[in-house]
Design a protein that fits this description.
Oligomer: single chain
Largest sheet: 11 strands, mixed
Number of helices: 15
Distance between the termini: 35 Å
Length: 484
């Protein structure tokens, strides 16, 4: 059984986006501008563990790969943007191809929509369009073959898996798929395993897609709107759906027994960061609902041949669509934990509801920590996240210094403060009963390490990384809190 998460590469600036949206635009530009539209609306979605990363840095994809592997994600499906030899956002996957430290398996999805002002490929104001009249299957395959040859690339029956997002837009697609097969065989493969997206915009039936030459279809969610319950939150332009109802509608979708249909699930969906008020919100408050959807979707494909037992997850990092497994400031790793737990449960043959950290009592999940102003503060992490956390500290906080595991940084200065090493300086650090703010990708390991010294979560250490002055019962104190 493979869990494949869709992966968006738009987390680095490119010349075209600079021209269309403004200098320095990345996906984070939209994400950070988003605001709640109704009471209880979770916005903005802001990253925690990986921070506001830049995919031009090889270490980012390496960290993503480690995190995915740790929590049961078997592969990434990278979106691929090809406009007749014109490529967009290709640099991250080109770097990945040359980087063996990114160990996660992968496949590619040709996101063959037009790029437009409204982010849905359907708007009249086109930024860059597809031109299928001049499309060359050979030139496209020449670019793809090096990826197909990579040992990490996913294959079924010796055929590289290649997804197509909008099949109905491509004229002469049947002959194009035939050419893809021909070139793939010429490159030493058994052909190409093409998978068509059945999206909310798709008008072709399963049979019509297979007739075009596709080997399989993936039901790309969100598409199960019909029959799902909406919530009345006082908005007229934005549709807000009940997540559980949406899950039930999706699971009730029948799969023809003679076809290979791959399901898709998502932990949350909310594209208000991109669309503002003209958006769709399917907000999930309980990882168990996601876990149930994932488990039942795995059941749908369990009788397929082993290589075809695939469930797609939307997505690894669609931050502007609220669909991400990457940790955020509100939920942390809850949805990653739910993914791994579900996968383990499926292996054991039983779906189990888990009491995820903080999920029974949301007030506890988002509870602030209040400290006396004199409490010594350390930041564990002397990298970009550590410095970004330092920049959030109020003036006159009793900040002592940074902690870092790298001995080479020991006794160096960052922002005028010393860098301590836990193994060398733990007696000095613990003697003052401090609060440690963990601003490192290795927070699990750090927590385990400092717990050995009697430190308690929420009392002596935390991964909440926002600090401000506040008043409690007329007394001034520090409040350490999440964004939510």
């Amino acid at each position: 059984m493979k869990l494949i998460a869709f992966y968006l590469p738009q987390f680095h600036p490119i010349k075209e986006n600079d021209e269309w949206w403004g200098k320095g635009f990345t996906e984070w530009t939209n994400v950070t501008k988003s605001k709640p539209l109704f009471e209880g609306h979770y916005q903005p979605h802001l990253p925690s563990e990986l921070g506001f990363y830049d995919l031009r840095l090889p270490s980012v994809m390496e960290e993503q790969s480690k995190l995915a592997k740790k929590y049961g994600i078997d592969a990434f499906c990278y979106y691929h943007y090809w406009f007749n030899e014109k490529l967009l956002l290709e640099k991250p996957i080109e770097m990945m191809l040359e980087n063996p430290n990114v160990e996660t398996s992968f496949c590619l999805c040709w996101a063959n929509e037009n790029w437009s002002r409204r982010w849905d490929g359907k708007e009249k104001e086109i930024l860059i369009s597809q031109n299928y009249e001049t499309y060359s299957a050979k030139k496209h395959m020449d670019w793809l073959i090096p990826y197909f040859n990579d040992p990490r690339y996913l294959k079924i029956d010796g055929k590289p898996i290649f997804l197509v997002y909008s099949a109905m837009d491509i004229e002469n697609l049947k002959s194009i798929i035939a050419e893809w097969n021909e070139y793939s065989i010429g490159a030493g493969f058994e052909g190409i395993y093409t998978v068509a997206a059945n999206t909310n915009y798709n008008k072709l039936t399963y049979d019509e897609l297979i007739e075009l030459g596709f080997n399989a279809i993936y039901n790309f969610e969100p598409k199960s709107f019909k029959g799902s319950k909406t919530l009345n939150v006082g908005l007229t332009k934005t549709d807000v759906y009940n997540y559980k109802s949406f899950v039930d509608t999706s699971l009730n979708m029948e799969y023809p027994e003679n076809l290979t249909i791959f399901p898709t699930v998502f932990p949350n969906w909310d594209n208000t960061a991109r669309r503002r008020e003209n958006a769709i919100v399917i907000q999930n408050e309980d990882p168990n609902e996601y876990s149930y959807w994932l488990y039942k979707s795995m059941e749908k494909v369990k009788n397929y041949e082993t290589e075809k037992q695939i469930v797609f997850i939307n997505a690894w990092n669609e931050w502007a669509e609220g669909a991400h497994l990457e940790p955020d400031m509100k939920n942390g790793k809850l949805y990653l934990e739910a993914t791994l737990e579900t996968k383990n449960n499926f292996t054991n043959g039983e779906y189990l509801v888990k009491d995820y950290t903080g999920i029974k009592n949301k007030k506890e999940l988002n509870k602030s920590i209040y400290l006396e102003p004199e409490t010594p503060l350390y930041i564990w992490g002397a990298g970009k996240r550590g410095i970004a956390t330092f920049d959030k500290l109020p003036i006159k906080t009793n900040f002592v210094g940074f902690i870092d595991s790298n001995v080479e940084k020991h006794n160096s200065l960052i922002e005028g403060y010393s860098v301590f090493n836990w193994l060398l300086d733990n007696r000095f650090i613990t003697s003052s009963n401090p609060m440690i703010l963990i601003a490192s990708a290795y927070e699990d390991e750090i927590m385990e390490l400092i717990q050995q010294y009697g430190f308690e979560d929420g009392k002596n250490y935390t991964n909440k990384l926002n600090v401000k002055w506040t008043n409690i019962e007329g007394k001034r104190c520090m409040e350490i809190y999440d964004f939510v």
